[in-house]
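TOKENISED FOLD:
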Amino acid sequence: MHMKRWTWTTLILLASATASLSQIDKTKLGAGIVVGGSKLAGDIETTNTGLTGGLMLTYQLSPRVYLSTTSTYGKMTSGLNAINTRVYNTSIVGNYFVLPNSPIKPFLSLGLSALHYETTDGDDAAILDPNGNHYRGWAQALQLGLGFQLNPSKLWTLNTVGNYSFSGEDDLDAITGGGNDGFFKGMVGLVRYFKNDGIRHADARMDDSFHEAKKALPVEQVQPIRKRQKPALGGGIKFVPGTTRLLDSSLPHLDKIYDFLVANPGEEIVLLGKSTRSKRSVNYALVVGRAQAIKSYLVKKGITSKRIIVNQRRK
């Protein structure tokens, strides 16, 4: 039974991970832990909340929608602690953000779960049905929930969610005939998203007129003004799409430019870029802003501002 449990769980996690990784955008893929409590809703009136915890994998499809898969284990008690129900639960859930631009983002969730349950009495002995079989097995559940997400940083999220699982199983509380059982769960999850310098998508919502600005528009080249030396200095300078923020992978290339200027105090450089749009277009402002970002980086390291010239060209 244990082998079957892990086999099904592994298959579900692999299916979810494969779907997430099929588009390979690490800035939208995150992993973390969830901790909280769960409470049985069955045929016994008196139930207690038990500790529940596990792991979570998330993938953001859009600013409003993300998928998550969780694998949790919890122990719930009922009947004045006379019945213990242990549940190992793996779920795949779709989450919809109602207010995606709010500092605290509320969301609705809907998903499916595969769970393994096992019941014991207060002495941790197996509870048997009238036929002498242990009240345990596999079940499926429909999961509905409501939660909130807080983003303390660009790579970390804190999720608080409450949900109810309609299990369609009548044996979770070791009592049959009273109707299908379910359980409530309240969880807090801490998720860390993976950083990827090769960012291909901007997170902000943009209309069609702004799509061009989402592409990486690196400065075309960096070259000394004097024609007698033209070392290749500008390759590899990259920016976060749609912004003037330099990616960390660009810093070694900028340091090479700095070293060149230090070694050649009589040289000046010109930052060249090109755009197919007018001066009032997003592209023009973006390219100029990126050139200024390079200049600011070098000036902060000690290069005189007059030695760095920004020259924006348009086709």
Summary: The domain at 208-314 is CATH 3.30.1330.60 (60s Ribosomal Protein L30; Chain: A;). The chain is about 20% helix and 40% strand. Residues 18-25, 197-221 have pLDDT under 50 and may be disordered.
